[in-house]
Amino acid sequence: MNDRNEPEKAVANSSNAGAIPTAAGKVAISRADAARGDAIAALLDQVGLPASHLEDLSLFLVAEHNGLVVGCVGLERYGRSAVARSLAVRSDYQRQGVGERLLAEAIQLARAQKLEALFGLVHKPAERLVRRHGFEEVSREQAPGEILRSWQFQSCGCASAPCFRLRLV
User: Fold this and answer.
1) Do 133 and 166 touch, CB atoms closer than 8 A?
2) Does position 156 have pLDDT exceeding 70, yes or no?
3) Count of structural domains, the chain
């Protein structure tokens, strides 16, 4: 098992490399904690993503501007792989690099966790984004069994979303 401080340090160091400048000011990315659970759920509701299964936020990242959660992304670990989930950015912060940075930080966190692959069910608006980060579209059958049994892959709301994979090793 990895030392929890190592992945946290990796994300903290990259976040400190510079906040994202936006029209509204700088947006900082950090690890989520339980205190941000309600804000994450509200954001997911706002953008139409499932706000369930938020009990463990240990592998979630948030983008914040002046204390307001304006974006998030999470990883749910299943063995040596994880599902990248809940990539969301408030509408007034979209197209300013927030989602791009959140996904880059999530990939870095996955590498720090020594994961072998990330999988995600990606809806149309995010397909170009994940492809820019090296994800490739694959059949769902190429995902490990634990991933296939995850709530995301079993959910009716994600039945039509294409599956993407990023190999990390």
Assistant:
1) yes
2) no
3) 1
CATH number of the domain that residue 143 is part of:
3.40.630.30
Work out the number of other CB atoms within 10 angstroms of the CB of residue 78: 19
- Provide CB contacts within 8 A for 149, sequence distance 6+: none
Helix%, strand%, coil% for the chain, nearest 5: 40, 30, 30
Please report which helix (H) or strand (E) contains residue 52, including its range: none
pLDDT tens digits along 61-95:
999 999 999 999 999 999 999 999 999 999 999 99
- Non-local (6+) Cβ contacts of 152 within 8 A are 76, 83, 85, 121, 158
Assigned token pair, 34 = 């339980």
**127: domain range?**
5-167
- 3-state DSSP assignment of residue 137: strand
